[in-house]
Amino acid sequence: MRLSIWPNPERSFTDTLEIVRAAEAAGWHAAYVADHFMDNVAIGEPAPTPMLEATSTLVALAQATSSIKVGTLVASATYRHPAVLANWAATTHEVSQGRLLLGLGAGWQENEHHEYGIDLGSIRTRVDRFEEYVAIVDDLLAGEVVTTNGAHYHLHGAHLSPAPGRGAVPLLLGVKGERRTMAIAARHAQIWNAWCTPAELEHRNGVLDRHCAAIGRDPRTITRSTQAMVAVLDDPARAEQLRTALAGRPAVVGSAPQVLEQLLGYAEVGCDEFIVPCWILGGTNEVLATIETLTTEVLPHLG
User: Fold this and answer.
1) What is the CA radius of gyration of the chain?
2) How far apart are CA 271 and CA 256, in angstroms?
3) CB 48 within 8 A of CB 37
């Protein structure tokens, strides 16, 4: 099982780059950026925290690194037309020398859509739009000429040049709807991702496998990726306090041996990539210390 890093978008670019370079030096698999413009607060409440824009941040990280993969986790289908995003992805694929992981999601955060006047729509609308969106991006990146007259997008002989080729830019679909969105992942994704506990991951892996079987796809061709809040703490009292605070959310908390045991639980149910969010790790020095601990005490035992 591979480890990846996910710096939260309110960190400065200088700090983000330092974290990503440390993960790269440690041999971690990928670094991800979130696609949000503001804090997730109620509509009308102030959201003053500065945030880095995802696509420009990712290109900058690609230029400042050489081996670690870089990806969106995940780019919202509501913010950019699929043909525009596909063009960006093709260019970033070239800039990064083939290290882009294109994470896509249907969109969910209400306040930023409201503030910027971007239509979010009902859950059904989001899924319908996402289904069209993913198919367009996939086909354009593959080099297909795309004509479509869907409910949300209308393309007329659209093409992409240069087109990387099908699968050259792996599509990561961040979805968990068992009936429809995971079926979309079965059709188009090279990587599937959702926040999960080990039990949830085992269940959803089974759901994805069944969707693959329904269309004749080998389920082993889809990488299984997840994340949970992570904290390496030697103080048992602090660890227990944090577990209580995170109750109901996927979390990996405890001493390095305890964290290893919990991550092995993910590996046992089919996790190929575990992503470490930086949300609760503290300042940059604390994040770097966590990367070092996980690299030396945990990663060698994950297989």
Assistant:
1) 19
2) 19
3) no
Domain 2-174 sits in CATH at 3.20.20.30
Residue in the structure block whose two tokens are 């479509």: 148
Task: Give per-residue pLDDT as tens, 115-147.
Answer: 999 999 999 999 999 999 999 999 999 999 999
- Determine phi and psi for 144, rounding to 5 degrees: -75, 150
Concatenated DSSP letters of 52-73: --HHHHHHHHHHH-SSSEEEES
Q: How far is CA 98 from CA 79, 93, 224, 280, in A?
A: 24, 5, 20, 31
- Is 0.90 surpassed by the pTM of this model? yes
> How far is residue 100's CA from residue 106's CA, in Å, rounded to a whole number?
19
Sketch the domain layout of the chain as residue ranges: 2-174, 228-303
Nearest-angstrom CA–CA distance, 239 and 60:
35
* β-bridge partners, 217: none
- Residues 154-210: tens digit of each pLDDT: 999 999 999 999 999 999 999 999 999 999 999 999 999 999 999 999 999 999 999
Whole-number Cα distances in Å, 298 to 199, 212, 255, 294, 295: 21, 32, 11, 5, 6
**Phi/psi at 113 (nearest 5 deg)?**
-65, -45
Residue found under tokens 């992570």: 230
Q: Measure the CA–CA gap between 77 and 247, rounded to whole angstroms.
A: 30
d(CA 25, CA 212): 36
